[in-house]
Input
Amino acid sequence: MEIFTEIEPLRAFLNGKRIQQASIGLVPTMGALHKGHLSLIRASKAENSLTVCSIYINPTQFNNSADLEKYPRNVEVDTELLKTEGCDVLFIPPNSEMYAVKDHIKFDFGRLDKVLEGEFRPGHFSGVALVVSKLFNIVQADRAYFGQKDFQQLQIISRLVEELKFPVKLKSVPIERESDGLAMSSRNQRLSVSDRKKAVILFDSLRNSKAKLKSGTAFPEIKQEVIRSFNETVGVKLEYFELADKKNLTLLNNVTSFDQVILLIAAFVGGVRLIDNMLLED
Ligand code: AMP
Output
């Protein structure tokens, strides 16, 4: 595996590969890799002759400096995992490389970045769009891989690609879960043993609510039930639990059709903020 920390040598290397007709897959991550990330690497390897994984904890997408500071970092283990997975290139730039000039560009995605994550993490998606734009321009991949775990992020990036005409094909990869259903996340590493057990409340809320929606219970009633179960569990705090149209994330009170809607949730478990979602079509 080739490892780059600087943009220009990476560009030169990839240009050489492009001349040899290589197709390039990009997997952007913030490191502390788990099986969810590795499924993105596998998806890229299956469709491209060369896979580039980036590890970069992007400061501009953190609206909370304590969250940025506490974000898990594990470069040595990540590097070994990527080698074992057969990743071709690791790009792991320092801040001075990604933000050599002060960032002034802000993105506004209209309603899409004001709801759900956007409401609770102001500025988050602007930072995501900025760093993803930089990565797209640096790597110039044919395909870029993102997880459905961050469903709203997928919508934002898809809008970014559409509006700015980035010549890259977006690919989305299903959520990888632990055996009890908890969505894999780098942040799970920060959970204490007892909080790790409690964290399944996000998945349980989604799964139980999905079953109830399918059997005809109205969403407002289901939402009250979820709020109640969070209130009854010590050490967890619900931020949002919503039903939305999966195409534009318009919030809904009722299911329009099962193949068009998604349930989304965010909550603190201990001091750790977790998100998850579930499509109703599956
Ligand atoms: P992160 O390192 O958290 O920024 O995630 C990097 C990429 O991995 C994003 O596209 C995430 O959506 C994706 N990802 C994170 N967790 C999972 C998971 N449990 N299953 C599938 N993809 C994931």
